[in-house]
Design goal:
The protein has about 190 residues and is an all-alpha fold. The protein is built from eleven helices and no strands.
């Protein structure tokens, strides 16, 4: 294992923080072959390695989603089998950025909807965001998301209401929503 391998960086670092994640992202974008190390890190038995690799992969997908081309199935398998919400959350955010076959997309959407029942608030928030982004191109998901998010507007937690309102605005701004008559809810 080289000193710049992802596992070495994460497991030997005394401070596996955002700085280390940024380092992994920079190294991987500069040397795309390292994407294999990041993917391998997702399967680590050490939660901090898996978690930081998931966070790095999410940031890589934002900067250069094409680096994930060819690894969609592996990413979705890791999303499905991970038991750590700290890994599931970042991987959920990657789903809308992946180029998926209909079968893989349907499977990913089912997994994401299942995660809405998870006890982790952070995971649920990330999944709601991912599904709202998928809604921009998938009317079936949009039709499921609007009632879910609308029901969240009645929650007592202000942060959850604001997030739901923002996600509904994102969905209502998508071209498909205008054709389907979906509009942002009226403020009460």
């Amino acid at each position: 294992m080289s000193p710049n391998s992802i596992h070495t960086i994460m497991s030997t670092s005394s401070d596996p923080s955002l700085f280390q994640i940024a380092r992994i992202v920079r190294l991987t974008i500069a040397s795309p072959a390292l994407i294999l190390d990041v993917l391998e890190g997702l399967r680590s038995k050490e939660i901090k390695v898996a978690m930081y690799c998931a966070e790095a992969l999410e940031k890589i997908s934002r900067a250069k989603a094409q680096l994930l081309s060819g690894y969609e199935t592996e990413i979705l398998v890791n999303l499905s089998v991970s038991t750590w919400s700290e890994v599931r959350g970042p991987l959920a955010l990657i789903v809308p950025r992946l180029t998926l076959t209909d079968a893989l997309k349907n499977n990913a959407i089912k997994v994401l909807f299942d995660f809405l029942n998870d006890e982790s608030t952070i995971l649920r928030e990330r999944v709601y965001s991912a599904l709202a982004q998928v809604s921009a191109t998938d009317v079936g998901v949009m039709e499921k998301m609007v009632p879910l998010l609308t029901s969240r507007l009645a929650l007592s937690d202000q942060a959850e209401r604001i997030k739901a309102k923002n996600l509904l605005a994102l969905i209502s701004a998508s071209p498909g929503s205008l054709r389907r008559g979906i509009q942002e809810p009226v403020q009460q």
